[in-house]
Amino acid sequence: MMQKILIVDDMPANLKELNLALKSPEYEIFVATNGTSALEVARSEIPDLILLDIAMPEMDGYAVCSQLKKDAITQNIPVIFIKERESEEDGAKGLELGAVDYISKPCRAPLVKARVKTYLELKRQQDIVENISAIDGLTGVSNRRHFDQVLEQEWRRAIRGFSRLSLIIINIDYFKLFNENYGCTAADDCLKQIAQALDQKAKRTTDLLARYQGDQFACLLPLTEAKGAFVMANKLRDCVISLNMPHGYSAVADHVTISQGIATLLPYPHSEPTKLIVSAEKALAHAKLEGRNQIYFVD
Q1: What is the pLDDT of residues 224-238, one digit of tens each?
Q2: Which helix (H) or strand (E) holds 271?
Q3: d(CA 144, CA 155)
Q4: What are the CA-CA distances from residue 286 to residues 27, 259, 261 (Å)?
Q5: Contact 123, 50 (CB under 8 A)
Q6: Same domain membership, residue 264 and residue 179
Q7: What pLDDT, on the 0 to 100 scale, is given for residue 129?
Q8: Are residues 129 and 159 in the same domain?
Q9: How is 113-137 classified by DSSP, letter by letter?
Q10: Inter-residue contact 275 to 240 (CB < 8 Å)
């Protein structure tokens, strides 16, 4: 998988020089020419490494780094400062703010490549550990913590790209009665089977299937209009039905079924992703009121 690098510098010549030095099929490179833009790209793209110039107008590299480290979404992204050769104090201050290293100008391509390669490998190892902590222990799909992080990231990306974002919240119908009558072991097995079946339908690399809470799952669909979300909901319903798990205590079928609430929104600047969650939860409540084993949509 390609790793992402964000280069931040207000001088086009410097951006070009670093771009050429790091050009590789292994890297996807993003650029920003000011601090504000850098923070926006960092939040939406979540790069694996940031090369950050210190001397920039309006918002310098120190201020950018400080903001990155205060934000839960970006605080773990390693930052390498680009500084003027004669200023050792710049490097020391940058390290105190949370940067992992610094490179002095003029940047030498071999040194830049070596430093970048080293820190990207460290980031890759860190991501492996974090990915393990992002998995729900019972079902093997993403957990709520990871879902919240990805939702925040995709919300910011949708704002930048002026694109729609869809969310489906899925509830297993009458799961409490299933648990009470078939027992905890059977209930856990039911959750596992449904989670894996749902996860197999969220095939795009941008889609995310996560355990939302208890007997509920969430399917996040970036770059997806309402029609596409409804198509996905039907696929999710059909895959659960195809499992044909007996449920003699359900009021809607003799097998396990799901109810789904869909919300599709166009995120706008300064809005929060909780708006999408609230809409999807309301839609799910309507689906359950309508008799369960339903799909209800809110646009």
Answers
A1: 999 999 999 999 999
A2: none
A3: 16
A4: 45, 10, 8
A5: no
A6: yes
A7: 84
A8: no
A9: HHHHHHHHHHHHHHHHHHHHHTB-T
A10: no
